[in-house]
C-alpha cells in the first residue's frame, strides 16, 4: 500500500516559519495510533485531524481500517467494497494549504483504490473521490472557515446497509459547541442532542452510483 514513510519532514524553512509545517515521522505516528489501537481498527470510528497536512495520520488510519475490512469482510466482494467506503467516510481532515490538502486527498484515494483494485472511471472510485472532496477540507481550523470564507461544514455519513449511505451536514462550530455542551452539565442537559443541534443539510439516501455522479474531481483528472 502507498504510504508516507519516505517523505521529508519539512518542505521548506519558509513553510515551517509561516505555517508550522513539520510532519510527524511515520514511526511516531504508529506509536501514537497504537495508543488508540482499538479505535483505529474499528471500521466506522470517526477521526478528525484539524491540521492534517498531507495525511501522515489519516493515511495510516485508513490502512488500519482497511486491514480490519479485509479481516472481517474480505471474502465477500460486495461487503468488502461497502465497508471500505464506510471506512473512508469516517475520516476527516482540515488543512490550510491547498497543495497539502490536494496531496492528502490523492494519497487517501490511492490507498482506497489500490485496496479494491479500482480504476478512475469506476463508480466506487468516483464515490471515494467525492467523499474525500467533502471530508478533507481546505480551510482554517482555528477560525472554522473554509477557503472561500464560509463556515466549515462536515458531512456525517452513516451506512444504511445494502450499499446505501446517509449524509447529514453539520457546521463545525455547532459540532464543537455540542462537545462543550456534553461536557458541561448545562441547564439544557435534559434535552437530547437532536433537540438542540440540527444539521445544516440533510440528504436523501445515496447509493455508490449517486455519490459517483456528484464527483467533480475525477472528471478533471481523467479529462472527461
Ligand atoms: C506541524 S504540521 C503537521 C501535519 C500533520 N498533522 C503531521 O503530523 O504530519 C501542521 C499542518 O497544519 C497546517 N496548518 C497550520 N495552521 C492551520 C490552521 N489554522 N488550520 C488548518 N491547518 C493549519 C499546516 O499547513 C501544516 O500542514
Written account of the structure:
- There is one protein chain.
- This protein is of the alpha/beta class.
- It has one domain (16-223).
- The radius of gyration is 18 Å and the shape is globular.
- The protein has 11 helices and 8 strands.
- Helix 4 runs antiparallel to helix 5, helix 4 (58-73) runs parallel beside helix 6 and helix 5 runs parallel beside helix 7 (123-135).
- S-adenosylmethionine (SAM) binds next to strand 2.
- One of its GO terms (molecular function) is methyltransferase activity.
- Residues 44-102 form the MmeI-like DNA-methyltransferase domain.
Annotation keywords:
single chain; 224 residues; alpha/beta; 4-stranded antiparallel beta sheet; 8 strands; binds S-adenosylmethionine; N-6 DNA methylase; methyltransferase activity
| Spatial order of the strands forming the largest sheet | 1-2-3-4
Strand segment tally: 8
> Which blocks of ≥5 consecutive residues have pLDDT under 50?
1-5
Question: Can you tell me the overall shape?
Answer: globular
- Give the SSE string: HHHEHHEHHEEEEHHEEHH
Radius of gyration using CA atoms only: 18 Å
Count of alpha/pi helices: 11
Class per helix and strand makeup? alpha/beta
User: N-to-C terminal Cα separation, in Å?
Assistant: 28 Å
Largest sheet: 4 strands, mixed
Q: In percent terms, what proportion of residues is strand?
A: 15-25%
